[in-house]
Specification:
This protein has about 200 residues and is mostly helical. The protein has a single domain, classed as LemA-like domain (de novo design (two linked rop proteins)), CATH 1.20.1440. It contains seven helices and no strands. It is rod-shaped, with a radius of gyration of 25 Å.
């Protein structure tokens, strides 16, 4: 076999290896894109339920105002926390891959959960309010929405964990680093907010 034949074999082998490498990179890249889109879609389900929650809270506060005339500070704190959470949620919903936006939302949601917990505790002192049919209906819807948020958050966290694991394992971590697949942020309610969230049965 002449030098030309050897050169062609070497070039063919190099081309074949480059082709394998290209398809491997493309497969890993596409896999990461799919996983990123999956957790973004999972966040969209959280967003739907958060918006429902944000819509219900003013109804709750308006109904409570009629009975809780001396609890203005508590009611105002709930509305203020709700408005801040609505504002922060816009950034998170526009780009769930932005870890800082998700962290900001977790902080705002923690504050809102704490404010709602304090409101529920104060409402215990108003039996007429607890007996109000409109309040009972709003609370039932709010409880259902909270459950849906919890399930949606779990699905989102599962999708984020799968994505983060795939972007961190060898050798796909090289592709993730090269193409800026940033780590996604889990959506967790702080331990303090969980403690502040007082459950009240209506």
């Amino acid at each position: 076999m002449g030098a030309l034949g050897i050169t062609l074999i070497v070039l063919g082998g190099c081309f074949f290896l480059a082709l394998i490498l290209f398809f491997w990179v493309m497969g890993v890249y596409n896999g990461l894109v799919k996983l990123r889109n999956r957790f973004k879609n999972a966040f969209a389900q959280i967003d739907v339920q958060l918006k429902r929650r944000y819509d219900l809270i003013p109804n709750l506060v308006e109904t409570a105002k009629g009975y809780m005339k001396h609890e203005r500070e508590t009611l105002d704190a709930v509305i203020s926390a709700r408005n801040q959470a609505v504002k922060v949620n816009v950034d998170a919903a526009s780009n769930p891959a932005n870890a800082q936006a998700i962290q900001n939302l977790m902080g705002a949601e923690g504050t809102l959960t704490g404010a709602m917990g304090r409101l529920m505790m104060v409402m215990e002192a108003y039996p007429d309010l607890k007996a109000d049919t409109q309040m009972s209906a709003v609370m039932e819807e709010l409880t259902s929405t909270e459950n849906k948020i919890s399930f949606a958050r779990q699905a989102y966290n599962d999708a984020v964990t799968v994505y983060n694991t795939n972007r961190e394992v060898f050798p796909s971590n090289f592709i993730a680093g090269t193409f800026n697949f940033a780590e996604a942020q889990l959506f967790e309610i702080t331990e303090q907010a969980e403690r502040d969230a007082v459950k009240v049965q209506f």
